[in-house]
Specification:
Lysozyme, 143 residues, mainly alpha, single chain
């Protein structure tokens, strides 16, 4: 049921295995898969080839500051076995990075979901939009 619902949220045809990848990436980093999927829907409507206006890449819209600077690969590679742009473009690795960022931001925000989503995107409006979308789909507040 969860997989079918995750797929139904996407307005574009998702990549093969997309819902399973969301669940696997979320579970690896102890993130609610429904939250990770809501972020993906908010960011790209599940379009794995999306490129943002500032060069953000993929399902979770990884910013170039994250994927382009080899200095950042040190902290990414510790948790993700990260290799830069190639990883940012791979849907599964992109989802893993998004799940890892959501988890890390939540820890840094002392468990505060709204603050962690604000940190993810740099906007409290974005955080409110994700939370509102989550509640619309799941009919409960995100955990």
């Amino acid at each position: 049921m969860l997989i079918e619902f995750l797929l139904a949220q996407c307005s574009l045809e998702p990549p093969v295995g997309y819902a399973g990848m969301v669940i696997e990436a979320a579970e690896e980093f102890n993130v609610d898969p429904r939250l990770l999927n809501t972020v993906v829907v908010q960011e790209t409507r599940c379009h794995h080839g999306a490129i943002g206006s500032q060069g953000e890449i993929g399902l979770v819209q990884l910013h170039p500051v994250v994927w382009s600077n080899p200095y950042n690969w040190n902290w990414l590679s510790t948790e993700l076995s990260w290799n830069g742009l190639e990883e940012a473009r791979d849907p599964y690795q992109n989802l893993r990075a998004g799940a890892w960022l959501l988890h890390t931001n939540r820890v840094l925000a002392g468990g505060d979901l709204r603050m962690s989503l604000t940190m993810y995107n740099g906007s409290s409006k974005y955080a409110d939009d994700v939370i509102r979308r989550y509640e619309m789909y799941w009919e409960e507040p995100p955990m």
